[in-house]
DNA sequence: ACCTTTTGTCGAAACGCTTCGACGAAGCGT
DNA sequence: ACGCTTCGTCGAAGCGTTTCGACAAAAGGT
């Protein structure tokens, strides 16, 4: 494996010159640059990442903190990861997946102080998140995917839940629905302060008021069974219900199944709009789910860009970037059949 | 940030001694070790990963090569990733996700020669895979998830497709089915030599012969729509069909939907067994899918262990480890209603 | 008791790069 | 022609480890 010294010798220059050609830190004459580049090509030279990292104290690797729940990564999360990786690569960075639990402070501390990673992307952010406090204390640059209670001094990239919920409700209202349910994440995640759960709950309330319609929120497990229970409960609590907004994809499928078994026709009896859903999953259902498509990959790319910018500028001001999900009308939403 | 020199000074020993305490490369007296450990704790010392990597020419990071298709990672793949990460961490390694296309040789070459990664886990292996040739040429240690045409000299960890298909067919035969279809991956992936597609096709043939029943194989897209088309084609080609084996989860859901719309009752008219399927997805369907549950996380852990072993031993002999999927009977398989 | 290992420790030389200070050679305003 | 920047290059000092050779002291073998 050729080293920089070999390249320098071959090109008849000093190693520092070779380094400058590589990093562009100082001006180099065209003639010299060409000779160096040629020498590199001839020797199949590849800079040694470790040596570079040691000398520059920058690894060009960013870590993606994602709590592994044991369950599958949803399509949104996957898209996020690929989007982030892609964006990182374009900037000459690598992305390292770090499945670290939300409260595994030791592991995170090790990661952050090892100087292996230049910064972090933090997924699945809680309203009050210990990882945030820790990273802050350690002065590691990071960007949140989601938001904490108080985002002052933090960089956040997130789905615009307010907008998304409002768009979804608006869609139903426009079709003529006047009583809708919102099937949220579980009561447990609401209680634990899971951001999306709490924020959509608030946004739903606001949307109801804004559009002057009635509705109920039902928290439930993120499973098909959870969806079944939720829709039963919702219909009990609000019999004139004609529209359902649902946060979780699995629950959405459960709702569809339950309604079908109850002899109800989707979308004519009840419309279902799934939130933060990818196309693949939406097509799994029959009829295909009308859904708010999550901007997963765009989010990943945005988060990465923000982080890299901060690494470059050393800037740590508050920053927030929100991307809404876009409505994709498919088969599960329509004008309700019978006006009361 | 404390360095090894600080620790050495504080403990009253030389830096090399500190290093030996850390790496265990040479014997150290208990008294010294305790002093050094104490000094580390007091200083919150964390070894610098880059310096370590440079000096030892080992990064303690392994790369996971996974071609990003733009689509979501299935539950199996996700489980694989988490299993691998987990196993790596237990051994003091990190796992880095590298979304590199199957034929993006340049990118892979850069990765492999950069000395950032000690070895590779290769996912989505084709029967003839350029990455394998390249890694071999570069003498990078690696382990395949899947198998190439000729696995001589390679280390492979894979799902035991032969066993899995045979188990699935056996399940149907035992219930009394005599004509079954196998809905495989797309014709395109078959043609491109995608291992699982080709191997299951062969295994299905073998299973039919072994159990003396008839059947047809239908390749189709890995989508719900693909599943719908496939089941229609299968029933045309083999009207007495009572059982279906299906490779892709999305297709499985499509098949269920299509059968329901055709007025057929699952499992009484037709049984459906989904291959290589995770529990979450199986429960999405109604009735829940009888499926061969893929050993995703176990595979990941196994692959990692094999790779780490090779890194330690410098051993490069042929090695193969196959894990079968295990049958999970749920609601979509049963004794067929009417004996002919 | 003598020679040979083994044990425990140290100092110093890498590892392959970045970056700083220095310095001659141009280029420029006057 | 005179200083003044800017340009282009070099040598050398790190970056924080690991690892090698050396060596004194303790332990074994006969």
Automatic annotation (TrEMBL), chains A, B:
Name the PANTHER family on file: HTH-TYPE TRANSCRIPTIONAL REGULATOR GALS, LACI-RELATED TRANSCRIPTIONAL REPRESSOR
Q: What's the protein called, per UniProt?
A: LacI family DNA-binding transcriptional regulator
Quote the SUPFAM superfamilies the UniProt record gives: lambda repressor-like DNA-binding domains (SSF47413), Periplasmic binding protein-like I (SSF53822)
Annotated GO molecular function terms are: DNA binding
- Pfam families, alphabetically? LacI (PF00356), Peripla_BP_3 (PF13377)
Q: Which UniProt keywords apply?
A: DNA-binding, Transcription, Transcription regulation
Q: Which residues form a coiled coil?
A: none
Q: Which domain of life is it from?
A: Bacteria
Query: Mind giving the lineage of the organism this protein is from?
Result: Bacteria, Bacillati, Actinomycetota, Actinomycetes, Propionibacteriales
Question: Where is the HTH lacI-type domain positioned along the sequence?
Answer: 2-56
Q: Which organism is it from?
A: Kribbella sancticallisti
CDD domains (UniProt xref): HTH_LacI
């Amino acid at each position: 494996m050729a080293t920089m010294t070999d390249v320098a010798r071959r090109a008849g220059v000093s190693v520092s010159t070779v380094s400058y050609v590589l990093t562009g830190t100082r001006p180099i004459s065209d003639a010299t640059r060409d000779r160096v580049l040629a020498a590199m090509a001839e020797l199949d030279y590849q800079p040694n990442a470790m040596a570079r990292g040691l000398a520059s104290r920058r690894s060009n690797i960013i870590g993606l903190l994602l709590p592994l729940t044991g369950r599958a990564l949803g399509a949104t999360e996957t898209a996020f990861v690929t989007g982030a990786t892609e964006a990182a690569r374009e900037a000459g960075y690598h992305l390292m997946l770090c499945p670290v639990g939300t409260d595994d402070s030791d592991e995170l501390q090790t990661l952050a102080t090892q100087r292996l990673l230049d910064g972090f992307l933090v997924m699945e952010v809680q309203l009050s998140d210990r990882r945030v406090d820790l990273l802050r204390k350690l002065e590691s640059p990071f960007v949140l995917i989601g938001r904490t209670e108080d985002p002052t001094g933090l960089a956040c990239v997130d789905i615009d839940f307010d907008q998304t919920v409002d768009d979804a409700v608006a869609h139903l209202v426009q079709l003529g629905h006047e009583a809708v349910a919102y099937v949220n994440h579980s009561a447990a995640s609401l209680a634990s302060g899971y951001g999306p759960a709490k924020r959509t709950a608030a946004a739903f309330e606001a949307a109801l008021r804004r559009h002057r319609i009635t509705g109920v929120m039902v928290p439930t497990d993120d499973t098909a069974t959870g969806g079944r229970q939720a829709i039963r409960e919702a219909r009990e609590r609000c019999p004139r219900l004609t529209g359902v907004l649902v946060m979780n994809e699995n629950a959405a499928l459960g709702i569809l199944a339950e309604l079908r078994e109850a002899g109800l026709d989707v979308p004519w009896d009840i419309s279902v709009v799934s939130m933060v859903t990818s196309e693949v999953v939406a097509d799994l259902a029959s009829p295909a789910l009308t859904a708010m498509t999550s901007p997963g990959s765009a989010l990943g790319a945005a988060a990465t860009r923000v982080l890299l910018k901060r690494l470059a500028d050393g800037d740590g001001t508050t920053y927030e970037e929100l991307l809404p999900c876009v409505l994709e009308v498919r088969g599960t939403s329509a004008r309700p059949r019978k006006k009361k």
